[in-house]
Amino acid sequence: MPDATEPQPSGSTPIGTDVRGPSSDVTEPQPSGSAPTGTDAMKAHAAALGLDVEVVSRPPARSLAKAADLLGIEPGDIVKSLVVRRSDGEYLFALVPGGRKIDWAKLRGVVGTNRLSLPDAGQAKDATGYERGTITPLGSTTAWPVFADERIRGRRVGLGGGAHGLSTFVDGDALLSALDATVADITAEE
Fold it and tell me: Other CB atoms closer than 10 Å to residue 107's CB: what's the count?
């Protein structure tokens, strides 16, 4: 593997390459005195929670099966971090394993509300600081409550890396505990 300090052509990092650390080419420049954003915010929040995360680069994939194959994991190990708007205008995160979708009736029952919806892309970014496809509860600009499907337990999972082309791997049980997630059956098969 090339030394991380050597300049690399854009997009040349092999899949599975660990891109953590101060010499990482994914560290985002920050204005003086500003809070970290994107991948830096995610890594800082994970460190503050005592989570051991691995950030890897990944190429785009046209399907869940292809993404899982490229990352060397099972489709159910890819976790979608979905931002959900509550009827009171507040938000929450729903962590959904690959191959599954939110079961709205189940999620409403666990949350204790009769109305939930998915915000548009701009609202999701305003609520989290992340663009769709990069969203993770780690490093979100607001620490919204986390509701996670029970199938995440006992797995090493990959979720958004805070920037396009990155995935973050973490022990699912440690993630759920660190985020004080409400864990329940909140999904159905796609």
Answer: 22
